[in-house]
Amino acid sequence: MKMFFSLHCEINKSKTIRFKMKKKKSNLCYILISINLIGCWNKYRTRSSTGKPEVSKSIRYQTNMAETPALIWEHEVCSLLKYGELIPRLETALGKFSNRDSAEVIQPVRTTVPLQKHSGFLGVMPCYMENEGILCTKLVCFYKRPTGSTLPSTQATVMLLDPEYGNVKAIMDGDVITGMRTAAVSAISAKLLMCPDAEILTILGTGKQALSHYNVFTEVFSFKEVRVWSRSKDKAEAFAQSLGHHVTACESVEEAVRGADVIVTVTRSTVPVLSGQWVKPGAHVAAVGACRPDWRELDDTLMKQAVVYVDSREAAVTESGDIILSGAEVFAEMGEVINGTKPAHREKTTVFKSLGLGVEDAASAQLVFDKWKSKAM
Ligand SMILES: NC(=O)C1=CN([C@@H]2O[C@H](COP(=O)(O)OP(=O)(O)OC[C@H]3O[C@@H](n4cnc5c(N)ncnc54)[C@H](O)[C@@H]3O)[C@@H](O)[C@H]2O)C=CC1
Ligand SMILES: O=C([O-])C1=[NH+]CCC1
Question: Per the structure, how many domains does the chain have?
Fold first, then answer.
C-alpha cells in the first residue's frame, strides 16, 4: 500500500509553530491536509504592528480543535463494516429514533431535490445524536433508470462532523454503507417479524441491494431454499449462479413468491410487482424499493391485508407510494417493536416498508470511523 505523509501543525504556549510529519494512507488525504493548512494559515494569521505575521487566538483554536478530514474509501468501508457489529448498532439507533427524544436523535425526513433532466433525486439525509456526539449527513443521488441502463441507481457519500466545532471529521464512501445498513435493517425486521420456522427466502430484483440482502439474510438465518427473480430470466440465472447452486432462478414473480416465508423486494419498479394474492398468509415482506410517493412495488391487496411496519412514520406518509396510494395504515415503527412499545405480529402477514434513514447512516458511519481510527493508530 502507498504511504503518504501529512503535515501536522501545533502551536505551543510561546506561540511558536511546530510541524510534524505523520503517516497517512492516501494521497487525497495529503492534498486535503495541505489545503486545510494553507487555508487555515491564510485565514487566521494577522499582521502585527511590526508587519510580521503573528498568530492570532483563532489559529490556536483552529489547529487545536479542527482535525483534517479522514477520507475513507469504498474498499476500506467494505473491510471495516461487519454485519455482526452493524446489526446491534442499528437496532439501538432505530430504538432511539422511535423514542423521539431530541437529546437522543434529531433526524428530519430527508430533503429531496429533483434532478428532472436525469430522472433522479438528490437526497440530503442529516442526523444528530447528541448523547453520542454523532453529527452526520449523507448525500445520495438515486435514479429511475431505463431498462438496460448500466448506470448506477444510487451513489452516496457520507460525512461525519464534529458537533461542537462544526468541522468535517470524515468523508467516506456511502455506497457500501447504503447497501449494508439497508440490508441489515431488513434482516432486523425479519428477525422480529418472520415466523420462527421460516424456510424459504425470495428476493425480487438482482441489483446491489439484492446482493447485500442475500449476504446478510444467509449470514444471519438458515433458509433451506433461496429463490430469485428478475424481469429477465438470464439475469436471474446469472445472479443465482453467482451466489451458488442452492439458489433457484424463477420465471415469474408468482412462482418465486408462492409458499415463501420471507420476501425481499429490491427493485427499481415504479408500479406494483408483488401481489397479495400470491403471498402466503403469515409471510414477512421487506419492501425496500419504491421510495417516492408515486412509486410502487406492492399492490393494494397486500398493503391492506398485511400489518404494516415502517422505519419512520413521518417518512412513510411523505415518501412511500405503497403506503400513500394504498391508503394502508401504519401499525408501528421498527424502533417501537425493538423498544417493546408495539408488538411484533409474527403470526400475521407483515410488511416492513423501508425507506432508509439518516440515523442508520449515522450509526454505520460512526462504526466505520471508530474502526478506521483504531486501525490507523
Ligand atoms: N429503503 C432503502 O433504504 C433504500 C432503498 N433503495 C432502493 O432500492 C431499490 C434497489 O436499489 P439497488 O439494488 O441499488 O438498484 P439496482 O439498480 O442495483 O437494482 C435494481 C433491480 O431492479 C430491477 N428492476 C428495474 N426496474 C424494474 C421493474 N420495473 N420491475 C422489476 N424490476 C426492476 C433491475 O433489473 C435490478 O435487478 C431502488 O429502488 C432504490 O432506490 C436503495 C437504497 C436504500
Ligand atoms: O436511504 C437511502 O439511502 C435511500 N433510500 C432510497 C434511495 C436511497
Answer: 3
**Of the bound ligands, which one is closest to the alpha carbon of residue 357?**
2
- 130 Cα to the center of ligand 1, angstroms: 33
C-alpha cell at 95: 430504538
> Residue 256, by phi and psi: left (phi above 0), alpha (psi -120 to 50) or beta?
alpha
C-alpha dihedral sign at 91, 112, 207, 259: positive
Residues of the domain holding 142 = 72-176+360-376
Kindly give the residue spans of alpha helices, DSSP state H, lying in 55-117: 57-65, 74-80, 83-99
Q: Which atom of ligand 1 is nearest to 210's Cα? A: 13
pLDDT surpassing 60 at residue 245: yes
| Residue 3 or 367, more confident | 367
Q: Rounded to an integer, what distance in angstroms lies between the CA atom of residue 356 and that of residue 358?
A: 7
The model's pTM: 0.86
Predicted complex: ipTM over 0.90: yes
Which among 154, 180, 214 is the best mutation to test ligand 1's pocket, defined by most ligand atoms within 8 Å of the CB? 154
* Residues 285 and 198 grouped into a single domain: yes
The answer to whether the beta carbons of residues 184 and 216 sit under 8 Å apart is yes
